[in-house]
Amino acid sequence: MNVRLSVMGLVALGVAGCASYAPKPLPVHMSLPQSAAAISVAPAQLPFRELSSHPFNAADGLDMTEVAMLAVANNPQLRQARDGLGIARAQSFAAGLLPDPQLGVTFDHPTNGTAGNINAFNFNPSYDVNALLLRSSRVGAATADERRVNLELLWQEWQVVSQARLLFTRLTAQQALLERLQAVHDLLRQRYQASQRALAAGNLTLDAASAELAALQAVERQINELERSRLQNCASLNALLGLAADASLQLADEPGQAEIDAAAVRANLERRLNKRPDLQALQAGYRSQEEKFRGAVLAQFPALSVGLTRARDTSGLYTLGFGLSLSLPIFNANRGNIAIGKTTRKKLFDEYQDRLNSAYSEVDTALANLPLLQEQLRRTHAGEADLETVARRAAAAYRAGNMTAPDYVRLQTALLDKQTETINLQEALTEQRIALETLLGPDLPEQNRNTQ
C-alpha cells in the first residue's frame, strides 16, 4: 500500500507541473497598416543611441532617422528574428533544467502457486548521473548561443536601419531630380508648341522643330524612367517599414551631413569593430561550440546511472537493493562527436578570421572612396554654379530677343545635365557615408538590451 501511495504521489506531482495546450488559429486577414501614423514607436525602447534619442512625429513628415526608427519598430523580418530570439531563450532555459529521475515499477500476480503466494512488485527509482555531469557544458553552450542570436538580431536591426536610410536617400534624390526634370520639360514643351506654330507659319525650318521635339522626348524618357524607379523604391520602403503597398509616405528634407574625419575613424577602427554585433555574434557562437566540444570530450567517459530497488517476491520476502549502470567506452567512446566538435570549431575560427579581415578591408575601401566623391561633388557644384550664372544672363537675353530659342534650350538642357550630375553625386556620397557607418557598426547605449 505504501508503495502504491508513493507512486501515485509522484505521478500527481508530475502532472501538477505540466503545461496546458491551447490552439492558435492562423490569421485570415492582412494586418499591414495603411499609414505611418498607425504605428506606435517608442524611441526609448529602440536599440541604438541615435534612434532612442530622436523624437518621432509622423504628422510633420518623416526625416531619415524617423524612417529608420519606423523600420526597426515594425519591420516584418525583424519581428520574425525576435521570435527566433525567444526560441533561443527557451532553449537556454531548457538546457538549465535538471534531468528528471526515472521510475520503474513492475507488478507480478502468481497464477499457479500455492495458497501462501502473494502478489509481487518491484519499485526501482534511478537517476542518470552522466546527464547531471554534462549539465554545465549544455548550459554554457545554450547561454552563448542565446547571446549569439541576440547579437545577430542587433546586427539585423542595424542592417534594416541602413537599408531604410538608403531608400530614403534615393527617394529624396529622385524627388529633387524629378522636380528639375518637370521644370525643364515644361520649358521644352512650351518651346516645342511655339516651334510648331512657327513651322506652320513658315517661319521655322523642319530641322529646327525636329531638334526641339527630340529634346522634349529625351526629357520625357528620363521622367518616365525616374517615375518607374521611384515607384519601385517606394514599394521597397513600404515593405521594409511593414506598411501596405499603397501606403503614402511624406518624407521631410534632410539637412546636409558633416564630412567624415577619416583619420579619426582609422584611429578608433579597432575599438569600433570589436563592438560590431556580427563579430560579437561570431565570438558567442565560437564560445558555444567550445562548450559543445568540451561536452563531447566529457561524454567519452563511461556513462553512469544509479538507482535503488525495493521489491517483494511472491513468497512475501521484501528486499532493498542498489543498482548501478555503467557504459563501457570500448567501440564508440563518443569519438565521432568529438571529431565533429573539433572540426566545427575550426570552421568557426576561420569564419571569424575571414569576417574580421573583410571588415577592415571594406572600411578601408569606403574611406578611400569618400575623398574621391567629395572632390567630384565639389567640382560639379562649381560647374553648376557657373552654368546657373550663364543661364540667368541667357534668360534675360532671351526675353530681350538677343538670344535664339534653340540656343537658350541647349543651355537649359546643359544646366539640367549638370544638376542631374550634382544630385547623383550627392546621392552617391550620402550612400557611401551610410555604407561606412553600417560597416563601423552602431553606437549602442551603455545598458542596451541587446548587449546584456
UniProtKB/TrEMBL annotation:
> In its keyword annotation, does this UniProt entry include Coiled coil?
yes
The highest taxon in the source lineage is: Bacteria
Signal peptide range in chain numbering: 1-21
**The keyword Signal is annotated on this UniProt entry:** yes
Q: Which residues form a coiled coil?
A: 178-229
Protein keywords = Coiled coil, Signal
Q: From the Swiss-Prot or TrEMBL record, what is one GO molecular function term? A: efflux transmembrane transporter activity
**Pfam families for the chain:** OEP
Which family is it part of? Belongs to the outer membrane factor (OMF) (TC 1.B.17) family.
Q: What is this protein called?
A: Transporter
Q: Tell me which species this is from.
A: Rugosibacter aromaticivorans
